Amino acid sequence: MQHWPRIAITCLLFILLLGACQSTQTSSATTPVADADQSVTPTVPAELVFAEDARVAGIDIAGMTVAEASAHLLEELAARDRTVRLQAGEEQVTIFLPARDLEAEITDLLEEAQAQAAQKEPVEVPRELALEETMLPDQLTRLAEAISSTTTLELITATDTLTRSFAYRPGRSLDVDAALEQITTELQSPDASAIITLDLEEDPNVPRPTFAQLQEQVNIIADEWNGVVGFYLEDPATGETVTRNPDTVFSGASLLKVPILLFAYTRIPEFGEEEERWMREMIIESNNLSANDLLAAAVGGTGTDAAYEGSKEMNVMLRELGFQHTYQNMPYEAGDYLIGLRGLSIEYGPAQEGSPPYTEADPIVRTTPAEISRIFVMIDACSRGEGQLLEQFTETLTAEDCQAILDLLAQNADKSRIAAGLPAGTRFEHKSGWTGDMHADVGIVRSEGGDFLLATYIYQEQNNSYLPDFRAARYISALSRLVYTAYNPEKVE
C-alpha cells in the first residue's frame, strides 16, 4: 500500500509531459516557419513590343521595341524635317526648316505611345508641329509675292484665220495661312511626296472681251471672204451690237418662216393637230409646202391662192412692226402657178435695195441681218411678257405663245452652221436658210456666260455664182465659235 502514492505521482508527471508535447505540435501547425533556403522573386514583364497598326507621327512602328521605334522615328523625321520643297504654280523653291530637338520630341511621343499601349488602346500618336513659330510664314509671304498673277484675256489663233477664239488665263494667288496649314499636314504624313504642291487660289472672275475687240476679230474673219458677209450680234441684256453690213439686203430664203410662224400665232386662235404638224415641219425640217399651208390657214383658207393672200397680209404686219426690207411677196415654189398659170403680176423688190454692198437678192423673199434679228429679239422680249408684240397684238398673242415659238425654234434640225460652232447641248433657237449663192443662220444662243442674238450671212464669192454648202458653213461656224467664246472664254493653264 505504500507504493500507490509514488505510482500516482509518476502517472501525473507523464500526463503533464504528454500535454506539453501536444501544445507544441498545435503551435507548429498554425504558425509555420519558413525554410531558411526559400526566397520570393517578383514577376518582371517582358520588354514592350508595339502591336500591329501602331503609328507615331504617322510612321508605322508595329512590331518594334521602344528603342527600335525611337531609332526608326529619329531616322524618318530627321530626313523629313531638313528641307521642304514647294511647288507653287510654275515656281519651285526649297525652304530649309530650323533644327528641331527631335530626340526630346520623340521621347515625348513614345511616352504617349507606351501609355496608350498600357491601356490596351490602339496606338496612334499624332505629331504636333508649330511651323507658324518659324521663319516659314515670312518665306511663304515672299513666295506669294513672287507668284501672284492677274487674270489675262487671250486670243487663240492658228495659221488659218478662221480658227479664232477667246480664252483667258486666270489670275492666281497664294494664301499664306492656308499654305502653312497644308505644309504642316503634309509633313505629318509619311506618304508625303518629295515635293509639296501648294494649293493656289484662282481668281473666280472670268474676263470678257469688249465689243470693240470682238468687232475687230469679226472683221478679220469677214475680210477673208471674197464676197459679202452679213453679221449682226446683239446682247439682249444691254442692247450692245457688233455688225458687218447689217442693212445689206439678202435673199430671205427659209428665214422668212419665222415671220410666218409669228403671223400664224397672231391670226389663228387655236391650233389643231394639222396646224401644229405644219409648224413643226416648217421649222424643224424647213418644209416649204407646210409653210404655205400655214400662211393659208392664217387667213382662214387653204391652197396656194389663200397662201398668197396670207403672204400679202403678213407683209402688212411686218411693215406695221417697222420692217422696210423684210417681206415675202409670194408663197414658196408658187411661181409656176401664180405667174405661169394664173398670170398674176407679183411685186418684185428693186434691183438695189437697202445699204451697200448689194447682193443679187431674191426679188420676192428678202430681209437684212438687222431686221431678221429684230424679229427674234421681239419674240424673246414677248416671251418675258414685254415689248412691242404684246402691245400690238393684245388680243391674240401671249407671252406663252412667244415661248412656244422659241421652244419650236430650238428643235431646228440644222446643226451645220451656227450650231456647229457651239458646244454640244447648247440651246439655240434658230432658223437657217440658203439659196444657190447665199447661206444664212439666225437665232438666240443661251449660254452660261450670257444669251446673245446672232445673225450670219455668207453671199457668193466674186466670179462664182454658186456657193457650196460646206464653204459657207465653215465660215458661219467660225463666226459663231468666235462669238460664243467672247461670252464664254476658254480657260487655259
Structural write-up:
The chain has 493 residues and is α+β, with helices and mostly antiparallel strands. Helix content is 42%, strand content 16%. A five-stranded antiparallel sheet has the order 12-11-18-17-16, with helices on both faces. A three-stranded mixed sheet has the order 2-1-5, covered by helices on one side. Strands 4-3-9 form a three-stranded mixed sheet. The chain is elongated and about 120 Å long.
Structural class of the secondary structure composition?
A: alpha+beta
The CATH superfamily name of the largest domain is DD-peptidase/beta-lactamase superfamily
Residue stretches low in confidence (pLDDT < 50, at least 5 long) are 1-45
How far apart the termini lie comes to 141 Å
Q: Just give the CATH class of the largest domain.
A: Alpha Beta
What's the total helix number? 15
Q: Mean pLDDT, nearest integer?
A: 88
Q: How would you write the strand order of the largest sheet?
A: 12-11-18-17-16
Shape, per Cα inertia axes: elongated
Q: How many domains, as an integer? A: 2
Write down how many β-strands occur, each being a DSSP E stretch of 2 or more residues.
19
Radius of gyration: 47 Å
Beta-strand residue fraction: 15-25%
Question: Could you give a short account of the major beta sheet?
Answer: 5 strands, antiparallel
Report the helical percentage: 40-55%
Which CATH architecture of the largest domain would you pick? 3-Layer(aba) Sandwich
User: Remind me, CATH topology of the largest domain?
Assistant: Beta-lactamase
